[in-house]
Design goal:
There is one protein chain. It is built from seven helices and ten strands. About 20% of the residues lie in helices and about 35% in strands. The chain has a ten-stranded antiparallel sheet with strand order 1-3-4-5-2-7-10-9-8-6. By secondary structure, the chain is of the alpha+beta class.
Length: about 290
């Protein structure tokens, strides 16, 4: 059977060692648009190894994407025998327990925590906990994967996610960001090698007009925008960063990010103007420390 829930949830957690350097951090930052204006001196903190700061979302690709693959492969999911073209990254939650260093290593434990039946699809939830060399929590990521046409394996399970209620007022800030036509080609060098983001034939077979941008690339672009515009570049203030991937972004398209500042929480959602302002990131929340 395509999905064996018992096998998936009883599978032994995987434990792997991650290691990264400043070069990995610089590549990640460039792949989500850092340094697009090389004359902007504030961008130096993301693109120059001298006094390099690390965006919290780098955790998602540390060790070449082992922590939370932007392109889930069935070989990494015991009990899940589903074609890669049917697997879509549906949502991401990230909790930062301590700032990510420019050069470091971590041990990461990954396990499937839930497989829910949504009727027409299944939602697979994967949790990863990274620990420092001294045994302290580094970050926790929780990934939701939408398995298209793979429902029906059990009783239909409604979503348990608490609805996001945005403040009843105009956003405090609207941030605009433009992606590059070759953005996905650069981002995939972080480890996300799903052909959906590079192969036009594969993308059409999966139901898209052309290769799409990785959901985690959009996630990183929006995270950087919030850190730059709302936190003055202070990454230490980011406690957690959550979003649901509601639709895709095509490389070259732009993002309109609406943000509400509620003190300890930044609520946000992002739309794509070129596609009629369709929501692409929803249920967005950045908790501040």
């Amino acid at each position: 059977m395509p999905i064996d829930v018992a096998a998936a949830l009883s599978a032994k957690p995987t434990v792997q060692r991650l290691q990264w350097t400043e070069q990995d951090v610089l590549l990640y930052h460039l792949s989500i648009g850092a340094g697009s204006d090389p004359t902007d001196l504030t961008e130096q903190r993301w693109v120059y190894e001298r006094n390099l700061q690390v965006l919290p979302t780098f955790a998602m690709v540390a060790g070449k994407g082992i922590s939370a693959p932007s392109t889930p492969h069935t070989t990494a999911l015991p009990g899940i025998d589903v074609a890669p073209a049917k697997l879509l990254h549906a949502g991401q939650k990230l909790v930062i327990h301590r700032p990510v260093a420019p050069r470091d290593s971590a041990m990461i434990t990954t396990r499937m925590t839930n497989v829910s039946d949504r009727g027409s699809a299944a939602v697979i939830e994967v949790e990863s906990l990274a620990m420092t060399a001294s045994g302290e929590p580094y970050w926790t990521s929780k990934t939701s994967i939408w398995a298209k046409d793979e429902g029906g394996h059990g009783k239909k399970t409604p979503s348990t996610e608490t609805p996001t209620v945005l403040p009843d007022r105009a956003p405090d800030m609207v941030i605009h960001r433009t992606t590059r036509p070759d953005q996905a080609l650069l981002y995939r060098l972080n480890g996300g090698r799903n052909p959906l983001h590079v192969d036009p034939v594969f993308a059409r077979q999966a139901g898209f007009e052309r290769p799409t941008l990785h959901g985690l690339a959009t996630y990183g672009i929006v995270g950087k925008a919030l850190v730059d515009e709302m936190l003055g570049g202070n990454t230490a203030r980011v406690g957690s960063f959550d979003a649901r991937f509601s639709s895709y972004v095509l490389p070259g398209h732009s993002l309109r990010i609406s943000v509400w500042n509620e003190g300890s929480t930044l609520w946000f959602f992002a739309t794509c103007p070129e596609r009629g302002d369709v929501p692409v990131l929803t249920h967005g929340r950045m908790m501040l420390s």
